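Entry:
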Amino acid sequence: MDGANHSVVSEFVFLGLSNSWEIQLVLFVFSSMFYVASMMGNSLIVLTVTSDPHLHSPMYFLLANLSFIDLGISSVISPKMMYDLLRNHKVISFAGCIAQIFFIHVTGGVEMVLLIAMAFDRYVAICKPLHYFTIMGPKMCIFLQVAAWIIGLTHSMIQLVSVMKLPFCGPNVIDSFYCDLPQFIKLACIDTYRLEFMVTANSGFISLGSFFILIISYIFILTTAWKHSSGGSSKALSSLSTHIMVMILFFGPCIFVYAWPHPTSHLDKFLAFFDAVLTPFLNPVIYTFRNKEMKMAMRRVCSQLIVNRRIS
């Protein structure tokens, strides 16, 4: 059995989002538009933050990292999903499925830590404004960035080590449009109760725990901001509401998929589609429309790009 686990099942078949060709075509157009918009929006944020000296601050450094991760999240699932929407037979190789699971959990883990880091940044800005640049110096920013990647990679590797040697001897149909651990484990030819519990503990409880930690942190920050209301804290409070919106968009689907074990349903697919297509698009929209400084910087960068293009 162990020696045949990779040779018997060489590929997996996706059932996809719908059996209707009309609905698949609509979803293809919809997801293509949002994918392109997401890639352009997040790329523009990264370019703006790196090129505009006015945005060389800890908050925007973390925002650029978040946008970079959103580029990865969009690219892990969306291109394959859009390609499959135009095909009747939706398949992915065993290695491709493993790679997709790996990158989903790396990017998800990194984004989770970045959101916690951004909450810490807002805590320092609102609760300790006089010590903000001392605490959130370049070394702290680099430390948070490196820690996010280490935790993301570690989280993903722990997940994969447990499932890489599972025996797959027949069933290969996944009722979804992408590979992830809950569906992947259920196809194994052994009792996977312990592994399913481990996935719930590793991904679900971590997501749920991090979400509640962030909620408590933001309640504490909001309470502090109201007690010491001023012009500076009002500006920080405005940026805080943006972080809360992005946090809910990220953790909502994660908690439902991983921390609420239940059979695959249409709601699972909708949340996964929302998380893969809409969330990476909404993040730059939220940060741009609610931030005058970012909008002004984007205008400067776009104007400079237009000037450079005319000169060349």
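The beta strands are 11-14, 91-93, 173-174.
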